[in-house]
What does this fold into?
Amino acid sequence: MEYGHCEGMAVLSILFQRGILNPADFGAARTRDLVLEGNQKLQREIAYWYATMIPNPGRAARIIAPPRDLVAVLRTAFANTQTAFYTLRFSKLDRSGGHSVVPMGLRDISANEVAIQVYDSNSPTIARELIVNTATNTWSYSPALDPNQTSDDYNGTAQSLTLGLAPIEPRQGQQTCALCAESDPLLNTTASSDNPIILPPTTTNDGMGNVNQGNADISNPEFITPWMDLAPSNPLVDSWSSPVLKYFVLQPNADGHFVLSAPSENQTNIPVSIRSIGRGYTFEVETTVASGFPSEVIVGSQGNVITFTTQTTTSPTMYLGFETPTDDFDFYIEDFDLSADDSFRLEVDASNKLVGLRAITAIPDESVTFSLSMERIDDQGIEIFNSPDEGISLFENEILLIDFSQWSGNGGTLRMGYDDNLNGLIDANEAFVIEDVGDTIP
It folds into this structure.
């Protein structure tokens, strides 16, 4: 949702305008009088319509074309109905700054210029226009209220394909769930070849980082942004800037190997992250990189293990979230004291209710210290565990297992132990408990 509120608001505003949904059902007779803060029903509705732009059939129905062709589509739509049943999405030439608005009408400025009149949720009381030059087949949009703030301007060409329409009608029915295969390794069943792992690597924060997709075995790769497909010329090596999200679909038995690097020379502290999303779980790694010192992330073929390797001493944050029939769990592992070329592996075994941690150090017999926070979410609320301030230490190739099923809640101890015999379970003589020292999460 971090980059999708505008799409959710755009769709919902059209549904209100057409009378398909009623703002009174969300707390006010008029849309402009709705209150978002504390209005969970409205927040969920916005989130829902954002989410429908990702799966099919909604995604497959998108129209990505040169601006002159999109104007023609809108002319036909406005001729048939008062409001076009689309959202209008666009990005900057570098694929950053994705935004979504509502096309409300067309205004012919001259023989070669057309204004697409839009509703922009960022300035809902002000009429805005996206200008298309039909002669040069280019477009531009200035969202800033101050005309001197040109850094916020958008523009594109027929070749950039950074402008598109997303029909709403296909998104009103049931969407295809790419993660809803009948079998899943994290739900105690057998993985199958038609159960893909969805991997959306993304940069974060300042939009200057790159993630280069390395030597993963990709079957039918899809490159998806929150507003349109933008297929690069080389699908195996790609980079992008925030807030663009790029998705790769990996089939089982194919390890996903990703290289996180800075986009150009002389750059340091560039924030990057990569997320692996599966049916009922998600992994994430956040870190910073510098020029010439990339980090690597490998996602296992079954999607239940992720390994991070650094070329610097930068401390990453590793996150694991997953659901069970009764509770949901979040794990945050951070504050690492990694050396160059150290690796750290995070794994979940839902059937035995264990989370595994393993350090692979570049120098033999070294150790890695880190902190652990855990959340358990159920119908009664959220309970939080924090490891001691001195952290937890792992020596090279030690496998530490967390038995989260034995945790009693806030203030209770967390059972852990080592798996020296590599059977996937805590050795009876290697079990211990650590105390809960706080109730905060990162």
